[in-house]
Amino acid sequence: MIGECFPPEEASRWRRVRRYAVPGWMIEQAAERRLAGDWRGACAVAGVDVAVDLAEVAATHGRTVAGSLEEDLAHLVPDLLRWHLPRTLGGQATISTGRAVVLARYGWRGGGPCLYVVTPRRTEGPQRITLRFADAEPLSEGRWKAEPAIIWLTARHLWDVRHVSELLRRCGGGHRTPFFHTDGTPLTPAELPTRDPAHDSARYPGRDDLAARAEWVAMLHERGEVEEALAAVGIEVEPVDFSMANSMRFLRESPLALARLVPELRAFTEAVRADRVHVPLSWSAVMEFGPGASLRGRIVRLRRDTEGITRLPEACRRRLPDLDLLREAKLTPGDLHPLVRTALFPTHADSAHADSAHADHARADHARADHARAGVGWPGPAEAWPAVRVRCRGEWHEVAVRDGVLRMPHSDEEQRREQAMAAFGGPVSGCFAVRRAWTGGGEWLPKGLRAQRKEPFAHAQHGDTPGLLRLLDAGFDPRVRDGQRRTLMHVLPLLPPLDHEILLPRLLAAGLDVDARDAEGRTPLHEAVCNGGSPALVRALLAAGARPALLTSGEESLRDFLIDRWKRHDLLFLLEESPK
Fold first, then answer.
1. Separation between Cα atoms, residue 155 and residue 345, nearest integer Å
2. pLDDT tens per residue, range 115-141
3. Which of 175, 290, 510, 532 to pair with 438, CA 20 to 30 A apart?
4. In the Cβ-directed half-sphere of 226, how many Cα atoms lie within 13 Å?
């Protein structure tokens, strides 16, 4: 068990990330296009908007830089990039907002133009990212002020297919991944080290077992023996703004990859030429390392003024979440991104063997893509939605999602009588209260149905139109509302452009109200305007009968709403649709 370093709420969040954020069809289709030489097509499939003009780069920076950039783009794995991007806190599974992530730099050491991605601006908005090229290091769009970018210059294994095999070493492994055999089978307790492998020549003779050493350090950390774990990797800690006890608590509760921290720090400081590097431990404390990534860390308060200080990115300081989930049996190796699975578990049944030749990379990649459809993100058939027991009229009834509706064991006559009673203000309870919450929104639902209700909205949140359509094809109820009383029409802006052409007619045919209001009074048209919906989606909602007059209330005019508040100059045609 991981213990305090991987609390249940964080495990639950990462499980949602791995289930929904990068669906299997995306991995498969992006791999097919990338292997065909269509890197732009691969980006389109993976929800990456490309704002890079190679001709302009060549004209501005020369053919050498443009050639290096083009070579990197040809080996970019956009779905793997999405897999590893940092995620929001607080139970969300969405990408961290308003961040710039620098992937590569071209030119002189420590400077020069760079390739980077920009993450979505809003947690609630579409999960699309943008690939850009800039003359100087970009700044993130932080909530209060611009923040330094996340620097992945030493982390090409997170996005470059030529470096994916490095993931094993970056997780602390040598010939195998820590805590696992090469086929992904977990080590038994008897197979784990009982003392420092460096001092156990009887069990680990003649070589430095990197995986065993990483296991030993991790187990010390997880048992709360933080000072011993730090000593094992050669790091000294000096508390500055906190007591030693609090400093150790911050370190104990932070999921640091201690066995890899020193080499990661040294590689990072060399790449960015930083004078000081921060390793965040909590919202208030960091471990600060000086020039050259010395082995003495100072535990100091996180300050607003961080000029001249660079943060070691989470991907270089944190244990790989996938391995934590595997150790907790929350995932299986088959749930991993195929490239991640092959790097970590080369003898797993679904892993391909690849040597260092580029052609073999491509062949192995194609074999991995064949396994992606059965991987993460595909919703199950109707049988995966078990019936839920509900106390109704002194008995236990079963309700279940079947054939596009929420079925319950009541005759048509009983349902009509209950509807009539409710219309006159009578109490609604049992199965009928459950159905009202299911199609009317709100929080009161049995636990099993709450989990099932999240499915279509989770797929929509991550732009997974095929996953959402498959749910509906399997008989999921399109009339469901989430806890915020949103309908599936409200989440259309989260899907890729033009996908509403498939889904909107289906929702209208199912009887959904195009002007339905959520808990905040917003209609689907309101969500489209305020949440980045395309002009095509807005026009489609108008054609379905959506009323622009519902967008505003009080003294605010529709023009002020569109232009001053939301900067939607592309939607001025709405002014022609509103009443004079």
1. 20
2. 999 999 888 889 999 999 998 778 777
3. 532
4. 18
